[in-house]
Every structure is written in C-alpha cells, then in structure tokens.
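pasting for the record
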Amino acid sequence: MKNLILFVLCFTTISMQGQIIYTSDYKSEADVKVYVTTYKSEADIIVYKTKYKSEVSSNEGIWYFTAYKSEAKKKIYFTNYKSEAELMVYFSDYKSEAGWKNKQKQHLLY
C-alpha cells in the first residue's frame, strides 16, 4: 500500500511539471525550436502563460517560464523564421483557450 501511494505521489509530481519552460538564447541548447504566430489558425498549440508554477498542467498548453535552466522540463528557443521552427505557438490571454491543435506534435513537449 505504501508503494502504491509513493508511486501516485511521484507520478503526480512529475506530470505537474510537464510545462515548466526555460527560454534559451542558443538554438543548439534548445530541446524545441518555436515560432510565435500572430494567428491561432497557424498554431500547433495555443499557450496560456501563467505566473504561477502551481497552475502548470501536464502538456496541455499552460506554460510557466522559469529563469533557471535546471528547473525546466523543456528548453525552447524562439526563432524569427517559421521555416526553422519545429513548433508553431500562439499565446492567448485566456487560460480556457490553451491546448493542442496539432496533436501530432505533442511529443515535442514530453
């Protein structure tokens, strides 16, 4: 029973840290190259940027940006060109809009 509780607690902690993001200054250091689009229709994922780490969800488009590389689950690099990007992102002001539009790219943030 103790093992089951420990497993559930560990799994919950890991899944809650799915969208802690560090912005890299170097393309070579990044796990994912991201382009920010001005149109929702072009996005692979609609992202809501939260100020609170406790609001982070498991790969559902709610991102918390950290200043510490070691704390991040994923390191991203924002590119100026669509052609360099692996992931197209649209930032929304509304948490309810967050989520994947192109689920085939979901693996990039796991």
